[in-house]
Amino acid sequence: MTRMIERWFPSSEVSENSDKGWGSGNSEIALFMWFAKRPTVQAKAAILCSLLPWPDEESEQKRLQDLVRSALAGRYAAWSEVRSEILRHNPQGASTLDPFSGRGMIPLEAARLGLPTEAVDYSPMAVLASYLLTEAPFKDRSQEPVLPFGQQPDGLRTAPADRLLHDLKFVFDEVQRRHASSMCDFYPEHSGRQPWGYLWAVSIPCQECGRRFPLVGAYELLLPRARREEVSFHIAADRSEGTWAPVVSRGAPTHQPTLRNAVVDGRKIAGKSAVCVFCSHVHPLAVHRRLLQEGQGRDELVLAADIDERGRKAFRVPTDQERQAVGAASEALRAEQPFNPLLPALPDEGIAPGNNNIIGPSIYGAKSYGDFMVDRQSLSYIRLARTISSLGDELTGAGVSHDYVRALTGYATAVVVKKLRRSTRGARFQSKGGAQVGDLFVNEGSITFSHDFFEAGIGDGPGTWRSISDNVLAACRNLFSGLQGAPAHVQRGTATSLPFPPKRFAAVVTDPPYDQMIAYADASDLFYAWAKRCLHTTWPELCITADPHGCQDKTEEIIVKRVRGDAPAEHRNRQHYDTLIARAFAQMKQVVRDDGVVTIVFGHGEPEVWQRLLSSIQQADLVMTGSWPANTESGGQQGKANIETTLTMACRPAPRNRPAGRKGGVEAEIKAEIKRRYPDWERWGLAPADMLMAAAGPAMEVVGRYSEVFNAKGEPVDIYTFLPLARSAVQEAMAVEIDHLPLETFDARTKFALWWVRLYGRQVQAKSELRWQTLASSMDLADVRDLVPDADKGVRFTTARQLKVAINTESAVVDVALALAAASEDGLAAMGEVLAAAGGGVNDTYLWAAVKFLADRLPDSDPDAVAFTRVLRVRDGIANAAENVLVAKEQRQQRQQAESVQLSLL
């Protein structure tokens, strides 16, 4: 049976809904901190199209297409209809598997349809995230006893999600109450209220005068808004006493912060320098970083922040009682007992060498994940973990089932994990947006470090337990509303050794790790260290690891790890990735049914990465049979921002006993297959740029008919060779004409330029797209690089003024056209000079066709579009001017020749 995804995919609907509403997945990612986000609309579309058939009759095709489009209108849209259709066409069962489940976005959509669903991931933190999203909410909790510290209203036993939501509210409130009680002595009240939190800064000894001073990068506290003055502060130095103190004032800052860009002897110092408030000595980045690495940094309490009953924020100098509480917290931290003999109170899990690019604090001296906080923060998290752990024991003692205890403590730990994003020395204070606590992950997947940072307290306000737990509870309300489906089954494992029998699943749908984009385990080890302490009794398997540093095991993590800093040889290199991803694909082939598909969602723009991916698919004895683009990454999501387009690819086990093929014959088949499918793509409204991506599917399907493909010399041909050919075949199938002239008949450089403008106009594209287009055009990158130069972190078609090319009779048509546009502001004579230099092509239909095309295709407001229109308008005048130039040139040559003759007669 041909699956829908092998012939059609709702690319436009996925693109339109990926960054808004239910299809964005924003509600789902609000539940737990993880680094990769697959939009729910793409996950749902991949599940539906992998399980539905592609009928032979066009009317049936349209009916199922319309059904899928209807199902993508909402979270549970057309639920009964699409579910019954899937079950009807899968009499053997419609089970699915995601062996790289991550936070569980793909398994979630199968679970919402009530289909048997397995989710596997290598990271314990991803397993926890998947469980909370795809398994726990769908289970019936109606027979669970009343929580020992809560009340159960009538009627909750009939709605599993309502029961879970109700109990989570009581658990979160109980955690807040108990944790605040355990920490109240260390966070004293001020004016009868708990402070929101405290601003800290690291101090260093000045290398000139020896006095300590704090490193503060900004003095803004509250920016001006309606009915609110701006508030700032500065560090004031008493040089006679050798002391410093914070001074809060109204208005904009009047002093420069101590951590700033500095200029010494007229030269700007690279990076932020630390400038002493006592003697103004400048400590460059390397110096103050070295001081921290040597352990000479000291945490200094700078300001306290309050929120009054009207929600207004205010800042002040900490009281003596508050300063004493800081010291008391340090003493209490040293007295904290281990969670168990193998789990000390303060995390001692070590930061692996070579992680400087991922774990920012390690650059400044942090050796373990227990070094990330001030003492009071560490004490607070230890007691928070004890609170959650003891609640789990109490719930178990009250007769609550083991699975439900795991769920309740798991959701509480999700709050801890999200709270950690607003904690540690990387949680910068932000004055924008009404004063907020910054996120640790400024650069996706990398934990930042800051010399000045904010410590949220135990009351109200951003970054506190109450604030974060309310956020998680709101996400649960959204996700549990109208909940339908059945629980997925989530387990930890490796995609290279799946614990399932052969031919178990109707479809494997997965979003594998992308080469070296994100080091998932390294970036989440901070969360892992604290999650172990929260869940060591209810999720004891979390504490089991083979990692020598006590963190998550990384032996078989399938990524390419970028290493920075001193480190031993990293095993997660490209060979490791390519070997293991091929092994994982082979495992997927083993567990999918003969009539099923392996659907791979992949988003990487680099041709070289695609080459390696296709090689891995081929090594797994899989054949790609469909490839569909969607713009899913442009919304600033938890994923790499520079990848906007992802492909949803369908693969099947390669047919047995395939013959060998010849390169020429395979190329002809690819062109024929793309030409055959092109009318459908056009009928479905697929954009030309999307057709280029979609062409990979039929091209690889054709190649997959053969065991090997040989060239004329009998040498094997790399499968990747055929991807540029597929793109070129799309161009041929489109039969693009430039003012009734076939694009194919233009010179190669002009054809490249006009095709680029046809696809993208003036839009910025990734540099990888330039490489793809160059390969498809069978040109060297150097031959066209000036036509598509760098612009705004990508590339963009050149402007006429930007292109500097000498025009002669051998010039490409596009160069002459751009030169005419550049000269148009200087008048007819200048344009005539260009046309004459090109050979005076007054009647060159290709030149004027290109000029007209560029005038029409570039945006109306584009200066070059205006220039090209101007060129067309005075075409006859340009011709006359060129003729005058040529006549004048000829007359000069005649005079020179006559003068030469006269000289020879003398």
> Stretches where pLDDT falls below 50 for ≥5 residues?
634-643
CATH 2nd-level architecture of the domain at 4-139 and 494-519 and 565-650: 3-Layer(aba) Sandwich
* Rg over alpha carbons: 33 Å
Helical percentage: 40-55%
Beta-strand percentage range: 5-15%
The level 1 CATH classification of the domain at 4-139 and 494-519 and 565-650 is: Alpha Beta
Structure classification: alpha+beta
Oligomer: single chain
Distance between the termini: 94 Å
Mean pLDDT over all positions: 91
Largest beta-sheet details: 7 strands, mixed
**Which shape, going by the Cα principal axes?**
globular
Under CATH, the topology of the domain at 4-139 and 494-519 and 565-650 can be stated as: Rossmann fold
The CATH H-level superfamily of the domain at 4-139 and 494-519 and 565-650 is Vaccinia Virus protein VP39
The count of helical stretches stands at 28
Number of strands: 28
Q: Largest sheet, order of strands side by side?
A: 18-2-1-19-20-22-21
InterPro entries: DNA_methylase_N6_adenine_CS, SAM-dependent_MTases_sf
Protein name: Adenine-specific DNA methylase, contains a Zn-ribbon domain
Organism: Micromonospora cremea
Keywords: Methyltransferase, Transferase
How would you explain this protein's 3D organization?
Among the domains are: about 5-140 and about 495-520 and about 565-650, 3-Layer(aba) Sandwich (Rossmann fold), CATH 3.40.50; about 190-320, no CATH class; about 655-735, no CATH class; about 755-890, no CATH class. It has 28 helices and 28 strands. The strands form 9 sheets. The chain has a 7-stranded mixed beta sheet, with helices on both faces. The protein is globular and about 105 Å long. Residues about 635-645 have low confidence and may be disordered.
